[in-house]
Amino acid sequence: MDKVIKVLSLVPYKFLPPDMGGQKGIAFFNRYLSKELNFQCISTAANESASEDYRIHTILSNSKFRYINPFSFFTLRKIIRNENTTHCIIEHPYFGWLGILLKWFCHVKIIIHSHNIEALRFKSINKWWWGILWHYEKMVHRHADHNFFIHDADKAYAIENYKLDPLKCTTITYGFEYPSIPTALEHESAKEIICKTHGIADTDRIMLFNGTLSYQPNLLALDTILQTINPILLATAGFQYRIIICGSKLPQSYRELQAYTDKNIVYAGFVDDINVYFKGCDILMNPVTDGGGIKTKLVEALGYNCAVVSTNSGANGISESLTNNKMLIVADGDWKTFAEALIKMDTTTATPDQFFTHFYWGKIAAKAALAIKSC
Length: 375
Prior knowledge:
Layout: E1 6-10, H1 21-33, E2 38-44, E3 55-60, H2 72-83, E4 87-91, H3 96-106, E5 109-113, H4 118-124, H5 130-143, E6 146-149, H6 152-161, E7 169-171, H7 184-198, E8 205-210, H8 216-234, E9 241-246, E10 265-269, H9 274-280, E11 283-286, H10 296-303, E12 307-311, E13 327-330, H11 335-344, H12 353-359, H13 361-374
Parallel strand pairs: 1-2, 1-4, 2-3, 4-5, 5-6, 6-7, 8-9, 8-11, 9-10, 11-12, 12-13
């Protein structure tokens, strides 16, 4: 008789209810994986788990010291023994040390679920200690029984630089919740809500930029929009448009972008349902050049049939071959071409079926479950 697979996921921070892209990535991955395997999760006390169908142990402290708390080992060991857990998924490498101890003393298989090459992400934003993290990250991945990477480039980097066995590495991308695009009626309804909320003419081209605005790569991208891209658009005769900026934690120095209200910039701040904007806007603009990983907002925008114009760096993990010209990629720093793409892009093309074959959460979870069963 085959051994029953029982999975325990360790999530080191609040992810329920999901607001930001990284939280959504874990929330939907867990939700769909729980349909494939016997599944439970351990996370922090800040989570609200009432809407999930799998059991969540909210036993980790919200303190930043939870990452180095040695007593966590004994708590997890007890749960693993009581539940006869066979596999542990560690979200991000930070709790890798704990995963290694559980592997040694509880005889469970360990899967590291990487959302970026974290060391390189911190290198890109000039953190001096990125090299220390790089060696730690390498050690954690080398001890894992299997490794999930967010896209093929990260997987290839880790195989080459961390000297990993390719057979123990699988690309498990960020996904989209639905297997097809919204209907035309859903798009029109969402656009009507956006236009009424922000006083926008329904004939304007509506472009969206969203993200946590305290995060340096997003803030630099916002500066690029305000200081470089938007002036080009303003100088384009006859082009009627609005740029909506969505996101929390805008620094006080920007004074909620009041200086740009007469320059076709609409600051929406944090919105309760960003999906309305993905459904109703014409183009998601992504002039992000740093930060690493896959930009979750691109996957969501394309899934909702919103066109995308992105820098080359910002489109990591999303092949143009899957988007049927629904996404245009521009070289980093070529802001004149970026602005021209925003003006000229044909937004009537639909996101193709092959996008959903690759990015639908149901298919991603089934692929992950197969990899877990094989290790």
